[in-house]
Write a structure and sequence with these properties.
InterPro entries: AAA+_ATPase, AAA_lid_NorR, CheY-like_superfamily, Homeodomain-like_sf, HTH_Fis, P-loop_NTPase, Sig_transdc_resp-reg_receiver, Sigma_54_int
CATH superfamily of the largest domain: P-loop containing nucleotide triphosphate hydrolases
Bound molecules: adenosine-5'-triphosphate, magnesium ion
Number of domains: 3
Pfam families: AAA_lid_14, HTH_8, Response_reg, Sigma54_activat
CATH class of the largest domain: Alpha Beta
Strand order of the largest sheet: 2-1-3-6-7
GO biological process, one term: regulation of DNA-templated transcription
Largest sheet: 5 strands, parallel
Distance between the termini: 52 Å
Oligomer: single chain
CATH architecture of the largest domain: 3-Layer(aba) Sandwich
Organism: Lysobacter enzymogenes
Protein name: Sigma-54 dependent transcriptional regulator
Length: 468
């Protein structure tokens, strides 16, 4: 097949994490020059030469663009379109050397956005690449929810949030720490159209005996230290949204009063007499299963039902296939913009991100990206999940601690660092103790350093400036 794609030298796309394209074509020359062309438009290209190879691509669903040839050695490109692992609709282009009315019609009937005929016209291909890249950037930055994620559970959550936001239904958000409960609460407020303020209260962070006056306000002299009149968070959220975080930490007596306020739509300040009418939409959150909390007595059942007109659960990051890489790229976009840099994820990062269990969820991921960004020696950012945990473990010199959720790679690193420390950085004795060659030890140390970590054999430290 002729290859008419010249390398045009178009400037690479603006700073930001590179968009990705998977080129599925058995014509290797074509695939390679299309890859070069995509690279010149700021893309990270990936190649597959058969259906089988493209199926083996774990990150298929994450590609910004899929360029699909129809005549492949093991079948038609259309077969791939019948499978679930595809990128979201509208990000697929059929490229064929043998255009026909029949295949064009089939393409139109599917979520295919382009039907291109070889040889590709550079202007046309370039325009497609730029359009898809711009869309990806927009998706990552301007999503009205501010929550990044294309995985099925996040799509469902996004749809629920959008649907519920304009109503006055109370919403209870549950999910592990760092999964985005507060972000979801803010999104509910933003999309609610309510003119008042968004007020967030962490019920676990305020001393229990002060919580009532903080929430409901107090009158002068109502208790020791209550100097003047004071309106509480409820009044401040009038016309807006009150976010009650860690609701299960609220003392039981206060839960009773809260329920009364919610039922009556009016409150009485601590030490006050008159009732004050309030119009507040309440969103509550807890990082445990709320029904369990009810069973255990941490959350009153009647209050649970009042708070949870709708109960939404934020899935842990490890159950959002592919989202970790999307979020990492978005965080990189932010950091690049902030620092005027153009760093990008190193090859293989997606696999590493997908393999890590992220016990601290998105919060942990954000700080891992930030740390990797700040410590990357060049433009390639290599994210090393769990570096913090390794350092903590490294503080005890003689014991290696493994916890469920660590990957083999992490366990291996931990083993190596501890053994090196034990033998006073002697690589030969370390190798002997671990039953590997000295060369393996050398290589492992080199890999750790490459990943942006300083290995001085006694402690694991993070190179570079402070991280969040
Ligand atoms: N889907 C997402 N896309 C982008 N950023 C996210 C997403 N979810 C969470 N974050 C970010 O992760 C961090 C933690 O989120 P958030 O504070 O909302 O979590 P949380 O569930 O309230 O955690 P905790 O239970 O510890 O209070 C924040 O910086 C937030 O902006
Ligand atoms: Mg929170």
């Amino acid at each position: 097949m002729p290859n008419d794609l010249a390398y045009t030298g178009t400037p690479a796309s603006p700073a930001g994490a590179a968009p990705t394209v998977l080129i599925v074509d058995d014509d290797q020359d074509f695939a390679r020059s299309a890859a070069d062309f995509a690279r010149s438009h700021g893309y990270t290209p990936y190649l597959a030469h058969s259906l089988e190879q493209s199926r083996g691509f774990a990150q298929l669903a994450l590609m910004d663009l899929l360029l699909l040839d129809l005549d492949l050695p093991d079948g038609s490109g259309f077969e791939l379109l019948d499978e679930d692992a595809l990128p979201e609709s509208g990000q697929i282009a059929i490229v064929t050397g043998y255009p026909s009315v029949e295949t064009a019609a089939r393409a139109v009937a599917r979520p295919v956005m382009e039907y291109l005929v070889k040889p590709l016209v550079p202007e046309q291909f370039g325009e497609l690449l730029d359009r898809v890249a711009a869309r990806g950037r927009e998706e990552r930055s301007a999503d009205p929810l501010g929550m990044i994620g294309r995985s099925p559970p996040m799509q469902r959550l996004g749809a629920d949030l959008r649907r519920i936001a304009p109503s006055t239904l109370s919403v209870l958000l549950s999910g592990e720490s760092g999964t985005g409960k507060e972000l979801a609460a803010r999104a509910l407020h933003r999309l609610s159209g309510r003119g008042g303020a968004f007020v967030a209260v962490n019920c676990g962070a305020i001393a229990p005996d002060l919580l009532a006056s903080h929430l409901f306000g107090h009158e002068r002299g109502s208790f020791t230290g209550a100097a003047g009149r004071h309106s509480g968070y409820f009044e401040q959220a009038h016309g807006g949204t009150l976010f009650l975080d860690e609701i299960t930490e609220m003392p039981a007596a206060l839960q009773v009063y809260l329920l009364r306020v919610l039922e009556s739509g009016a409150l009485t300040r601590v030490g006050g007499a008159g009732e004050i009418a309030i119009d507040v939409r309440v969103v509550a959150a807890c990082n445990r299963d709320p029904l369990r909390a009810v069973e255990e007595g941490a959350l009153r059942e009647d209050l649970y039902y009042r708070l949870a007109d709708v109960h939404l659960e934020l899935p842990p990051l490890r159950n959002r296939s592919g989202d970790a890489a999307l979020i990492a790229r978005a965080v990189l976009d932010e950091l690049n913009a902030e620092h005027g840099a153009r760093k990008r994820l190193a090859g293989g990062s997606e696999r590493a991100l997908a393999a890590h269990p992220w016990p601290g969820n998105v919060r942990e991921l954000r700080s891992a990206v930030r740390r990797a960004f700040l410590t990357a020696p060049g433009d390639e950012v290599r994210i090393v999940p769990g570096a913090r945990r390794l350092r903590a473990a490294a503080e005890d010199p003689a014991t290696v601690r493994f916890s469920v959720g660590m990957s083999y790679a992490e366990i291996e690193r931990e083993m190596l660092l501890k053994t090196l420390a034990h033998f006073g950085q002697d690589r030969t004795r370390t190798a002997r103790a671990l039953g590997v060659s000295v060369r393996t030890v050398h290589n492992q140390i080199a890999r750790l350093r490459e990943a942006g970590c300083e290995v001085d054999a006694t402690i694991w430290t993070e190179r570079g400036g402070p991280s969040k």
